[in-house]
Structures are given as C-alpha cells and as structure tokens.
Amino acid sequence: MAVSEGLAIGALARRTGLAVSAIRYYEAQGLITPWRNAGGQRRYQRADIRRLSFVMIAQQFGLSLPEIRQVLSGLPGNRTPTPQDWKEISVGLRAHLDQRIDTLTRLRDNLDGCIGCGCLSLPKCALYNPDDRAKSKGSGPRYLMGDTPEG
Amino acid sequence: MAVSEGLAIGALARRTGLAVSAIRYYEAQGLITPWRNAGGQRRYQRADIRRLSFVMIAQQFGLSLPEIRQVLSGLPGNRTPTPQDWKEISVGLRAHLDQRIDTLTRLRDNLDGCIGCGCLSLPKCALYNPDDRAKSKGSGPRYLMGDTPEG
DNA sequence: TCTTGACCTAAAGTTAGGTTTAGAAATTAC
DNA sequence: GTAATTTCTAAACCTAACTTTAGGTCAAGA
C-alpha cells in the first residue's frame, strides 16, 4: 500500500490510455524500465506516467521509437526528472517539429506554383529534397510528371 | 515501334524512378491500369508517367494509397487527362496539406506553451484532437503527462 | 480457501507499402 | 538462331508498431 510499491501495468495503462501490450512493447524497445515485484510482475514509478505521455507526444510529432529513445536518454538516470529536465529535452522536439512544418510548407508552395501554371511539371519540385522520413531509398534524382531533362 | 505500342514496365520505371515491383504493386492497389500486349506483358500510356508522378507527390503529402486512389478517381476515365484535369484534382491535395500544416502548427504552439510553463502537463493539449492519420484506435480521451481530471 | 481478474512469456498475426525469390515465358540484341 | 535481357506470376519476406493468442502464474476479495 505504500507509495514505494509502485504502479502495476494495468494502472499505468489506465493512467496513460495506452494498451498494456503497448507498454510491454515500449519496454522491449528500451523506452521504459520497470522493476519487478516479488512475484515477477512489473512495477512502475509515478514519473513513468509522464514518461509515456512524452512518448505519445513525440510520436504525434513524427518521431520513431528509436528516435524517442534517443531523446529520452537526455533525461537524468539517477533521479526523477524535474520539470526543467522535461523542458530541456523538449527543445529538440520543437526543432524537429519546426523542420517538418517547414518541409510541408515548401511542398505546399511548390504545388501552388504548379497548380498556377496548370502543367504540374516540377523540375524544381520540393520532392527533390523531400522529408527526412521519406525517400533515400530511390536511385538518384527523379524527373517528375513526365518531364525528363532530355525531353 | 509505333507510339500506340506503349511503354514496357521497365521503361516506365526508368522514367519515374520507381521500382518495377512498386509499379506492379500500385496496379494491384488500383492506382494504375495498363493493358497487355500479345505476349501478356504490361504496356503503359505516356500519360501514366504523369499519373505515377502524381502518386509520388501525394505520398509526400502523407496520403495513403487508398486515399490517392480516391483522388485519382476524379480524373476522366474516357480520355487522357488534360493539365486542367490535373489542376482540378490537385485542389483537394492542397486542402489536405493545409490541414496537416495547421495541425502540426497547433501542436507546436501547444508544446511551446508547455515548455513555457515548464510543467509539460497538457490538459488542453492538441493531442486531444490529434492528426487525422494517428489515433482513433485509443479508447476515449487520454490524460496526458500524469494529470488526471480527478487529480 | 477459492475464485476471479490481472499479469507473465513467447510466438504468431496485423497493416502499410513494398522487395525478393523462383521458375518460366517473352523480347531484344547480335 | 541463339544468347542475354525483360517480363511474367505467386508466394514469401521485410520494417514499424503493435495486438492477439495460448498456456500458465500471481494477487485480491468474499
């Protein structure tokens, strides 16, 4: 009954809205590290509610789980994170989000130009420098909408 | 050799930068419909280069393949699409993109507020009304960063 | 105590968007 | 005419982020 007994996984699930299976999965991905009670069941700190909420927010921002793990590694390991700790690692998120907004805005403006001329041929298209998450799998520059350089 | 013989799948792949396997996959998803030559091989119209380029652009915008299929269904089926046709279906893309940018911007501003107060507790967080693509899989509202309504 | 609900692990299944493989047939190049 | 290249189909495989299932254990309450 003491606070030190920690939260069971079901309680943590109810507090975060996550599925129990998702929380176990996050543990397997190194995002959260519970301890075990005498019977071998997972027990969590109250601060882990905040930690999982952060994971959910970062996911909304488009970070992958490995990326989130990286960001979380910026938290102190030897004590419960303070509001200031959370604030500091959130700065990186803000930068990530700014970049995503910027990419999409460039993409939109490019489409506007193409709609404007009515041809949709984009030799200067933002797709040549696409979003970080997409691409890098293609082979060299692509000539879009049917316009090759040699005609 | 006549134009009417169409493009083989390899030629289309070179013109679009897509893998041959991807083009076949898009056909299976109903995004493109080649005809077959006497030997059973796929043959494509030159206009299909443009069609596939549109698919790639729409993907950059975050549309799923079923969504793209839906958008493409706005093209005339009985003739080669004109620049005006492409312009018309692009308007929907523009709206989609605007909405995504708007969502991300709200998310960012919300994070700013939370960084500002240093607590990262977001009862009014944009995550309650998240991006269209994410969520809808959760069960009811989530109380983020450890703050439940009842305390 | 007994029973019910919560929890455990490991493995398989799921969706999206493809790629890879295998073996055969068509096409192209010389 | 033959060799090399492309293309064909079907099915298996891949990653991310989880969920589901199966069979068994732990914890809490009447």
Mind explaining what this structure looks like?
- 2 copies of one chain form a homodimer.
- In chain A, 49% of the residues lie in helices and 3% in strands.
- The first copy, chain A, contains 5 helices and 2 strands.
- Chain A has helices at 9-16, 20-28, 47-60, 65-72, 83-117; strands at 35-36, 42-43.
- In chain A, a hairpin with a 5-residue loop joins strand 1 (35-36) and strand 2.
- The longest helix of chain A is centred in the middle third of the chain and has 35 residues, at 83-117.
- Chain A is elongated, with a radius of gyration of 22 Å.
- The relative contact order of chain A is 0.09.
- Mean pLDDT of chain A is 78; it is low at 122-143 and 146-151.
- Chains A and B meet through helix 3 and helix 5 of A and helix 3 and helix 5 of B.
- Chain B binds a DNA duplex (30 and 30 nucleotides) through residues 8-10, 19-22, 24-25, 29, 37-42, 59, 64-65, 137.
Kindly state the percentage of residues in helix of chain A.
Answer: 40-55%
Distance between the amino and carboxyl termini of chain A? 76 Å
Main sheet of chain A, how many strands, which sense, barrel?
2 strands, antiparallel
Give the count of helical stretches of chain A: 5
Q: Name the shape of chain A in a single word.
A: elongated
Largest interface, with Cβ-Cβ < 8 Å? A-B, 54 and 54 residues
Chain oligomer state: homodimer
Summarize model confidence as the mean pLDDT of chain A. Answer: 78
What topology, given as strand order, has the largest sheet of chain A? 1-2
**Helix and strand pattern of chain A:** HHEEHHH
Q: What is the radius of gyration of chain A computed over CA atoms, rounded to a whole number of angstroms?
A: 22 Å
